[in-house]
Amino acid sequence: RPGLRMAPLWPCVLVAATGILAADPPPLGDPTLLHLTKHLLQQYHKEVRPVHNWVEPTTVYLDLIVHAVLDVDVQNQKLKTSVWYREVWYDEFLAWNSSLFDEIREISLPLSAIWAPDIIINEFVETERSPDLSYVYVNSSGTIKNSKPIQVVSACSLQTYAFPFDIQNCSLTFSSILHTVEDVDLRFLRNREDIKRDKKAFLNDNEWELLSVTPVYNILQNSAGDFAQIQFNMVIRRRPLAYVVSLLIPSIFLMLIDLGSFYLPANCRARIVFKTSVLVGYTVFRVNMANEVPRSTGSTSLIGVFFTVCMAFLVLSLSKSILLIRFLHNEQCSGWEQPLLCLQKDSDADGPGVDPGTWCAGITESSVYQEHQAQPETLKEVWFQLRSINTHLQTQDQVEQQGVQWLALLYRFDQLLFRSYLLVLGLYAVTLCSLWVLWSGS
Q1: Structure confidence at residue 332 as a pLDDT band (50, 70, 90)
Q2: Among 77, 50, 293, which residue's Cα sits nearest to residue 179?
């Protein structure tokens, strides 16, 4: 009877054991993935280009997305950009039938374990900086996808003539180091128009704005063979508003103040003080803004030429005013000294012991003495005095006439400087407006 009581419990035990086994199935995914990886890499040789027929080239598809312009070094002619780089190629030795491996259609493999094209950027001037992404995606058809972000420091011919309305055109050229076009050929991953107009990923909150990225395919021919190249021409332009507010407008105000000094009299000493103050202020402004204007040994910015010309005009006008004041002062002193010398000569003719300082004091004594002299001597003395007075008046007239002539000459020179100043400012304003229009229409 105890055996009969235990018999109904056996079906329950069997059902419970079956449920436990069904709740914890054996892991099938990991062994299958591991088996697929071993199947692909067990007899794989990464030193050999992955084609069955060595005559057929391996086509590498490239794509480039510009993310940001990090730095523009005009002095060293270098451009630092952040880009997203993608390359896709077909590996005939890494294809499999997904139905034999639990429908696995894509896996990741280490890049160091497979063959990869030796594609570099020809304009590299520093070591590339990118995250260490050591894996690539491989699908069942043998297509390999390698994507990574790169900080590229490349050489570029930067022109600063139109600063701050400058537009720069820099290129990134991708090509193979050793493989000719018969072995490795390059193609575009996307349509050229899509690459040119794609600016969605670009950061527009910095100083530079991306206009376009134009892709160009060409073949470089040299003594080693023909090499396929893909060149991405990046066209960027500077946002000039910050430089217009902090650089152009203050410099124009200083030049207008300097123009106002031309309305002061040419022989006025206050004009020298005013122009000296403007020159000091302009020099301080140039020193403070020296780091704002890009410097290049190959080209000079238009705004730098304008600053130099304006400072030359300012120094020339100040030097002219100083020389004029000095010359008028010398003429005035010489005009007062000449009559004294004439009086000294006349008094020496009458008596060798009388000097010009005591001649006026002895007039009273001479008049008393002359009453006892003859009439011809009195007339002779009067004639000498009249001749001295005439000489003095003629000398003063000559000094005044020379001063008037110099003033007239300096006024004409002032007018010439003023008109030249206006001409330079007008040409500079027209040039800036033209550059702004070209910048807006680009």
Answers
A1: low
A2: 50
**Per-residue tokens: 235:** 């066209």
- The one-character DSSP state at 129 is B
Shortest CA distance to 438 belongs to which of 245, 238, 299, 300?
Answer: 238
**Which stretches does DSSP call E strand in 252-402?**
none
Range in 98-107, 260-269, 328-337, 339-348 the model is least confident about? 339-348
Q: pLDDT, tens digit, for every residue of 290-328?
A: 777 787 766 778 888 888 888 888 888 888 777 777 766
**Backbone φ, ψ for residue 240 (5° rounding):** -90, -5
Q: Is the pLDDT of residue 268 over 80?
A: no
Distance CA 301, CA 294 (A): 8
Q: What is the number of H-type helices and E-type strands within the chain?
A: 11, 10
Half-sphere exposure of 99 (CA within 13 A, CB side): 0
CB distance 208 to 69 below 8 Å? yes
Q: How many CA atoms lie within 13 A of 117 on its CB side?
A: 30
Angle at 43 between CA 40 and CA 47, to 5 degrees: 100
Task: Give me the residue spans of the domains in the chain.
Answer: 39-239, 243-441
Beta bridge pairs of residue 236: 168, 210
Evaluate whether 144 touches 113 at the Cβ level (below 8 Å).
Answer: no
Domain 39-239, CATH number (from 2.70.170.10, 3.40.50.1220, 3.40.50.2300, 2.60.40.10):
2.70.170.10
The answer to whether the peptide bond before residue 352 is cis (omega within 30 degrees of 0) is no
Q: How confident is the model at residue 85 (pLDDT cuts 50, 70, 90)?
A: very high
Mean pLDDT of 85-111: 92
Q: What is the pairing mode between strands 58-73 and 135-139?
A: unpaired
Q: Does the pLDDT of residue 87 top 60, yes or no?
A: yes
Using CA atoms, how far residue 6 sits from 18, 117, 253, in Å, is 19, 73, 109
